[in-house]
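re the bet — no i am not wrong, look at it urself. input seq straight from the record:
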Amino acid sequence: MKKITLLIAALFTGSMAFAQYYYLPAQPGNPGGLNNDGEGTFANMSPLGWADVQATSSTDVWSSNQTIPFGFMFNGTSRTSYKVSTTGVLTFTTAATTVPSSSNSYLPSASIPDNSICAWGLEVSGSNDHIASKTFGTSPNRQHWVSFLSASNPGETQQNYTYWSIVLEETSGRVYIVDQQHRRAPDLTIGLQLNGTTAISHPGSPNVGNLAGNNSSASDNVFYSFMPGSQPGFDLAGVRLIMNDTIAPPNSAFDIYGTFINLGFASVSNVELNYSINGGATVTSNVSGLSIAKFATSNINHPTKWTPTSTGVYSIKMWVSKINGSTDADLSNDEINFDVTVLQSIGIQENEIDDLKIYPNPANDFITVEMNEANNTAEVEILNLLGQVVLTQSIGANTSSRINTSSLKAAVYLVKVSSNGKVSTRKVSIQ
């Protein structure tokens, strides 16, 4: 399982007197969970509805002007169009002519037009490199994604690649920069430039490296947030539920344990913590004795254990409603949602397969099993929740292999992979 590193960072603004945004450090996944397309070259993404913005270019260029499908508030003005450079800069100053080079630096910079968003330091110059866009969600909460697909690391071999996206969110006016997939990514400048004297940056700029790995799903992605307005005092965001996705047996008591990050400026000492199962009654309890500093993360255990009464798939939702006795300022980022499968028993797996990846999840007609074992072959079994084997296939153990699942009915399955004396099981939903 990929280790998610959350940066502990300080706010940085080019001019506090005119600051209109604040920065939040890395959070796992894709913002809002709207984009589930994964990552790939433009040839793979185009059939999924991604639109051409700019093809590869041996020289640094601006794209043509692009239309945002909703009014997006940026720096106090509703924006309806933008253009983007092959070096990782999106600007609403569409009259700009000089293209920033891939030699990135600190913000604010004279090389960057006013009203720009930067994942600056890329090159879109290789044979598979492309810039594409797609809008996700429904009004009034859509997201417009502008993605640098298989971009190049300046001055390095084309075998190295990097995927980043700039996301514009309707209504909230938030900007997200998503770190997605890499084989040796460049150091970037991540931030917003409002004008020649005012910028809000990731504190590691211009040397922000990648945290994401080389998985083409969102499972190892992280995103940085640039939020309009002033940072609230109390804001805890859900990160993940600390629980196996397959547990046994029923009628046993299980901890509901979540990881939260403090996105407010005040230290957190106590919370009102909640969970529900399958959308049922809310179980609420107060948890005290905490000490969560700004931008720090903490694991919080709900005092009331959960006892499932039967086998099956359960949807768990966990969230914080009050912090230090005050209402959480942003309830939209509180929830942790997690599906757990309860079985009568689970076989002991003392020796798991390292770096096993199974994606996409949920899947339709196929799943990809990716691993890096020294053995030449591996055996894959797909089981239903009754423990019955419904599909088997031998695959290569040191590569990625596609398994056709089009014959399976829509349901949740367990994918069991065995190789070189090691066994790992993952839960996959087939739609």
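see?? The helical segments are 42-45. told u. also The chain is about 0% helix and 45% strand. so pay up
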